[in-house]
Amino acid sequence: MTFLNGIAASNGIAIAKAYRLVEPNLSFENKTIEDPASEIERFRSAMDKSKNELEAIRDRANTELGADKAAIFEAHLLVLSDPELTGPIEDKIQSEKVNAEAALKETADMFVMMFEQMDNEYMKERAADIRDVTKRVLAHLLGVQLVNPSMIAEEVVIVAEDLTPSDTAQLNRQYVKGFTTDIGGRTSHSAIMARSMEIPAVVGTRTATKDINNGDMVIVDGLKGEVHINPTPELIEQYRKIHEEYEMQKAEWAKLVNEKTVSADNHHVELAANIGTPNDLKGVIENGGEGVGLYRTEFLYMGRDQLPTEEEQFDAYKAVLEGMNGKPVVVRTLDIGGDKELPYLHLPKELNPFLGFRAIRLCLEEQDIFRTQLRALLRASIYGNLKIMFPMIATLDEFRQAKAILEEEKQKLTNEGQKVADKIELGIMVEIPSTAVLADQFAKEVDFFSIGTNDLIQYTMAADRMNQRVSYLYQPYSPSILRLVKMVIDAAHAEGKWAGMCGEMAGDETAIPVLLGLGLDEFSMSATSILKARSLIKNLKKSDMEQLAATVLNMQTTDQVIAAVNEATK
Ligand code: PEP
Ligand code: MG
Description:
By secondary structure, this protein is of the alpha/beta class.
């Protein structure tokens, strides 16, 4: 039995066999061959196997994920049957007597390069298709298995180096019982999604992919951040009990589902949910969310090969607004970049993606993308209580520009005779220290703030939120972070505005008492954290927490703050 320590990224216990989501080694040697005819046969057989495999994946995607996801595999099948690609490969094997792997790779690379250089989005996407198909055929030539999470058909724990948000979105909740990764932190987007999908997860183990083999029995302890590989039957039994106790605890919290969130001295705060897609609404309702405090719209743009149309976006926003039945819904405009990529935008690789061309920076430059989203939002605004929020605002100038574009689109829609809600609150994420420091000035112009601590902490501490090695510096309870949070809340209140928080800190048991004391108005978190947070707040007096907040702001270290919170809430 082996034991790994990592970061508890999503609560719960998972016990199942390991499924390694690790790219296989596709390296090979260039060889001269004796018998081109049999080499061509070998190539054709690999092509046939790839075709059968792709047809099965396409059919499965069609029934389980919908026609648009299946279309990706249809495009791959087209590439496979294209004689313009297969002809030159077979010619090369015949005339140059090279092995099939080399002929395939060289020919495919040439097409990829040619398509990528074209000034045409459609052709650029074909380059990506050819790359994918080449990998699949190469895997068959080499006799290795490509991984494919959408084909999983038994209960598993996924083991991966890292999971991208779009990998995570494709995981089938029915079979994927948990996951563990080598890298990542509590606020990497795969961790955030695991929480909203209620999949127990431990990230940042460093060596999961080295230590765990396919089929190993694995326990993922998402409560403590531990992974047990091939555990003893006694340990499995022990964990089944922990799992049952956790389920019972959840049943207790569930009794609060229809209650408002009020402290023991009757102060109301709003507990809202963070969502990524309209599908997450079910979880929000089941967990008694009083609103949506953050709709991360970028997931609408991911896992596909082109931008969503205005109509597609309108449908999604309308579904969320209607689903929340008049409760507030804060929609964040596109926040792409950092660990969330859109391959079809073909943005150049950056050395520091978290500090680069992302979110509002991209939207202000690529205005077509931004305007389409704003139009969809404005049109949907009449179906509920919409609030719009801009991400990654660093200067007042950015906010003013974004607001001006919004106003222009509103005017255009009105001129076209389209209805738009009379009042749509307009706010910003406070996730860059410059904006927190200047919050008093911003508060004069915005309707609300939502503090994005996931990024605010990484920028304040200069510690990458994805990097396990510096995770010791990623300190939500550091007095430095708490002081910034206080500045933002006070600045909002001084102008009669409200302040919320949608970073993961808002659902954190140690942070909540201090945030209540600092006067935070809205706490937005993974839906699955809401009931636990409500139960905690019910037992706290705001007046006591105000004293606690005043004390911890003057402390020196995170450890002192944690000790003070524990003392005040025991
Ligand atoms: C944040 O930065 O706190 C936030 C909520 O945004 P994201 O996690 O999507 O960067
Ligand atoms: Mg952020």
